[in-house]
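Appendix B, record 7
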Amino acid sequence: MIDREAVRSNAKYLRQIRPIDPEEISDYIPDQPHPAVVRQVLREEARALGLVETDDGTFVPVGDDPIPHRNWEPRAFPEPYAIALEDLLGARYGPEWHRGESGAALRSTIRDLKIDYFAGDAVSYDDRVAAAYAIYHLPDYYAAMGSVLDTLAERGLVGRKLRVLDVGAGTGGPALGLHDYCFGVGDAADPCSAVIDYHAVEPSAASDVLDHLLAETTRNFRTTIHETTIESFEPPRGEEEAADESTAFDLICFGNVLNELAEPVSVVDRALDWLADDGTLLALEPADREAATGLREIERAVIGRAGGQGNRVGDPNDRSVTIYAPTLQLWSDREPSDRCWSFDVRPDLEVPNFQQKLDDAQREDPGETDPDAFVNVDLQFAYSLLRTDGERRFPFHASRKRHAPMATMDEHVTQRINLLAVKLSHNLSDGGNPLFLVGDGSQQVDHYAVLTRESGLNRELREAPYGAVVEFENVLVLWNDDEAAYNLVVDAETVVESMSGY
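Structure tokens (predicted):
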């Protein structure tokens, strides 16, 4: 067995001097192991040592600065991944996979997936279901993952040395989005910009698709697939891991999986125990009402079990959990109980070739009459970012001297007040006055800001992005019986200022 500590010690010394050559290191190791064995140890220890492997087979230090903010707005699902998926489909069903019996079966499976999802029924994944899921969902989850990472990267919270756990990794949308965010895309790609130890938990047949697509990633995106359930998963520890190297993950991702778990709150609570002190737990769900509001219920339950936005009273070792974004709690002593159907919306993607092929092929079948049913390029998603170090995307707190909490809004109906809130939707109106869901972490029912007369003093309500903190001055409070919600009327007398710098 190779002396791993000797490999680590030599690597730590040489990294300060010159690129690390496995062949050179083997000369300094007892019994002079083969350079290929040394290279494998260096790959396994790369994240802990802060090393990336270059094209010539040597290892060099990765940068200390965080991954830059990408302003992530992909126009399309990357072609290499699209080709890889079509190669897999072709290997399974033949070059005309989208036509004939195979095409009809895949379209039928996509329809069944939609029906089962909206009925809340469990989905059993075999090879065909996994392939259908990949066709329909790879692009949107790829793009959504990068969009949420953007929220972390703007504060420098995506490091270049990451240990990642992807729970319910599925066919790989979030994994590929993570990869391209950290390493760049196309001409801007840099295969040495990060070193990522990626662990996927995926017990279903989707793992075969995931494994195939992960083969397209860079050598410094080191992948392990655990074909088990998250309930049975135990974080792996290195063969002879140093005492100061724990099993902690820098990023734990739940991508469209919490809505499928029997006890999601317990699972998230357990996963938080595996999170590094400065790590993030990312939960991503579809934008439909059941999934998006269900995510908020899980988020609030986890926060409640951890003692809210601060330390739990009692045991000083109990964990503090903070919502980093988007649903900031601006009142530290209050909790929300509204429905909170909140989700982000980004520009649509271009239709990938594999979706277009499947959709076009149905027109050749006289029994198929469902145009565009197999095209899914809308980018709408709900997300939650949780941390245990107290970090929040925006550090603002409401002040009793300046702001009224939404929990007391019944006291202010027909009055003009000041308040601090988070913008929790894009424009929800259908041709009428612009309408936005807002919250401050104390609301008991929905609150909507209605822009009835735009001016230079209040246009930031419309212009501020999703998740921004906005301050309202002199806003009129009305009760909306039809919606059982409060309307905050923003008119010519109202001032709205974005506090988030947008």
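Remarks on this record: Residues 406-498 form a domain with the OB fold (Dihydrolipoamide Acetyltransferase, E2P) fold (CATH 2.40.50.140). Residues 239-244, 310-317 have pLDDT under 50 and may be disordered.
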